[in-house]
Amino acid sequence: MIKGMDISSLLEVEQCGGRFYDKGEEKDLMEILKSYGTNYIRLRLWNDPYAEDGRPYGAGCSDFSATLKLARRALAHGFGVLLDFHYSDFWADPGKQTIPKAWRGFHEEELRQAVYDFTKKTLEDLRAADAMPTMIAVGNELSNGLLWPYGKVPHYEAIAKFVSAGIRAVRSVDQTLPVMVHLDNGGNNELYRSWFDNYFENKGEDFEYIGLSYYPFWHGNLAALEANMHDIAQRYQKDFIVAEVSMGFTMEDYKQYEQLSDEERKGYATKPELVSGLDYPMTKEGQADFMQDFMSRIQKAPKNRGKGFFYWEPAWLPRPGSEWATEAAREYIGEPGKGGNEWANQALFDYDGHALPALAVIRDFS
Fold this sequence. Notes:
Blueprint: E1 2-6, H1 10-15, E2 20-22, E3 25-27, H2 29-35, E4 40-45, H3 64-76, E5 80-85, H4 108-128, E6 135-138, E7 145-146, E8 151-152, H5 156-173, E9 179-183, H6 189-201, E10 209-214, H7 222-236, E11 239-245, H8 255-258, H9 272-275, H10 284-299, E12 306-312, H11 327-333, H12 357-364
Parallel strand pairs: 1-4, 1-12, 4-5, 5-6, 6-9, 9-10, 10-11, 11-12
Antiparallel strand pairs: 2-3, 7-8
């Protein structure tokens, strides 16, 4: 079973003073994760996460250089590495799929070629640097498409061509590399049926894994997730991986750690009105119980189709300077918003960096 962690923000957290502890002893994060059964690391890749005047976008500034450093560390610890291409200069998700600055003005055919060339060159460069990933995600949370407006739902023909260009580029570098195609809202079966039916009807290239995101405060209860996992495994005869999952361990604020005013900070994603009906409470024990139940449901998939999960940003500690988006980034994606870390109460480490009980549950699950 893949027991993976997305730690794309790690370098920035460390640079901003974040430290990690297991049983009171300070250790390297990857060493701690390895001791708790982690066997895979997920890393996002943004094309160019800097403004034209050089200002960084934050959130780990996951450019090639940062990805290379983390991939080397992960491989040195014996982890597999899932590389997640966003095909954007910053966050790409169902609410935004912003074309990279360098590709603005491209028409559809030029964008397909750009996806192919960027994917191929990135993988060739990683291989030359002895940092070759072991799995690839072509696009991130593609529920509403990618490279808007050309590849925005319902333009499924363009979506299939963009994704297929990325898959062909992966195959051109290494035919054995497994490929994932990833949507969000893992409890929404109608979304998955509609999206993948349209993808295959438009002759999209084949791939190995369907990826799902599942955040219980956004995506329904665990029963809905389980029903969708069972259906897509049977309908498409494909293995699946929950590519993103998290669960809160507290609703206590962490303003003192961010050292930002209320006017400057976004707060946290788990708003009280979103968590009132969760299967488990947002406590340390509730987080651990959630992970036990969640992993059990993956394991129950028909024909052993459920291959594992990646916990999203378990080490994104709230530290001054580590923000989900800088002002420059918010300008790029067109969101005025605020800064700060909106995820720290869903990590697998408390605000001071101490390992939480859910890690032991993950380690002991088989």
